[in-house]
């Protein structure tokens, strides 16, 4: 997950680093906090719909930061274009440190390789800290009669394009995971893109789509309507924690290195 800020001045960046690292129990550094930041409400833009992991995680952070700073930290969902709309809004905001971006990889890592032109420069966002790690899992509708991944693959090979696969949207991690699975298993799904995890899971639970590759945490509220196959150990070892980032100002100060 990504968190970006419109100001690259070092006091504000250090303030954000200190606050979030303390929350994550990684580092507490109150001596480097900017004493005058923030002086008013801070807004966090989430480029995906409410209800998914991309929305829930920054809400946890915003609640803690509100108490720590003594000022409101407000979540605003600006969805669409695999996170590009929200990222562009933050990139074009005044670089005063009062509009942040919280997002998974697509807006700043994936989309520059999939879209011919973006309305913002992903390199203008600089990592501050890792928010957390969330594994992906293969989830199937409870009505689909598969007891294992092997059975699902066997059916998909015998019926190319018959199984429908929901995704968080074109270019998202769930979409790319589904494409990778199809390549490795030599099967073909019918892709059904949504604007985030929440609406996709709603249709999965209702039986309108057959399967999905998504974050485990996003599905806890609908467990009775789906069945999941946990990721393999090799997949778990490849997981990486997404960074919190800050956008560069025109001054182009040196990047903050995220913790490992």
Describe this structure in words.
By secondary structure, the protein is an alpha/beta fold. It folds into 2 domains: 2-133 and 241-247, Bordetella uptake gene, domain 1 (D-Maltodextrin-Binding Protein, domain 2, 3-Layer(aba) Sandwich), CATH 3.40.190.150; 136-238, 3-Layer(aba) Sandwich (D-Maltodextrin-Binding Protein, domain 2), CATH 3.40.190.10. It is 32% helix and 20% strand. The strands form 3 sheets. A 5-stranded mixed beta sheet has the order 8-7-9-6-10. It has a 4-stranded mixed beta sheet with strand order 1-4-2-3, sandwiched between helices. Helix 2 (53-69) links the parallel strand 2 and strand 3. The longest helix has 17 residues, at 53-69. The two termini are 14 Å apart.
SSE blueprint and pairings:
Blueprint: E1 2-5, H1 10-23, E2 42-46, H2 53-69, E3 73-77, H3 84-91, E4 99-103, H4 106-110, E5 125-130, E6 136-141, H5 149-158, E7 164-167, H6 173-185, E8 190-193, H7 197-206, E9 211-215, E10 226-229, H8 233-238, E11 243-247
Parallel strand pairs: 2-3, 2-4, 7-8, 7-9
Antiparallel strand pairs: 1-4, 5-11, 6-9, 6-10
């Amino acid at each position: 997950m990504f968190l970006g800020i419109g100001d690259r001045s070092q006091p504000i960046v250090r303030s954000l680093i200190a606050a979030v690292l303390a929350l994550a129990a990684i580092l507490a550094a109150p001596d480097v906090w900017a004493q005058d930041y923030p002086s008013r409400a801070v807004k966090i833009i989430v480029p995906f719909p409410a209800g998914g992991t991309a929305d829930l995680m920054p809400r946890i952070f915003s609640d803690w930061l509100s108490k720590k700073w003594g000022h409101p930290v407000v979540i605003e969902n600006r969805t669409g274009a695999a996170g590009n709309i929200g990222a562009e809004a933050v990139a074009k905001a005044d670089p005063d440190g009062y509009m942040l971006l919280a997002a998974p990889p697509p807006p700043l890592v994936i989309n520059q390789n999939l879209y011919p032109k973006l309305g913002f420069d992903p390199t203008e966002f600089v990592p501050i800290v890792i928010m957390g790690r969330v594994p992906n899992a293969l989830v199937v509708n409870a009505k689909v009669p598969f007891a294992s991944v092997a059975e699902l693959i066997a059916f998909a090979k015998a019926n190319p394009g018959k199984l429908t696969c929901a995704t968080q949207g074109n270019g998202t991690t769930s979409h790319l995971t589904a494409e990778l699975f199809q390549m490795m298993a030599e099967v073909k799904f019918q892709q059904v893109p949504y604007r985030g995890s929440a609406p996709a899971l709603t249709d999965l639970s209702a039986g309108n789509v057959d399967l999905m590759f998504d974050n485990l945490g996003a599905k806890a509220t609908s467990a009775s309507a789906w069945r999941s196959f946990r990721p393999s150990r090799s997949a778990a070892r490849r997981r990486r924690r997404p960074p919190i980032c800050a956008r560069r100002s025109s001054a182009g100060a040196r990047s903050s290195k995220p913790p490992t």
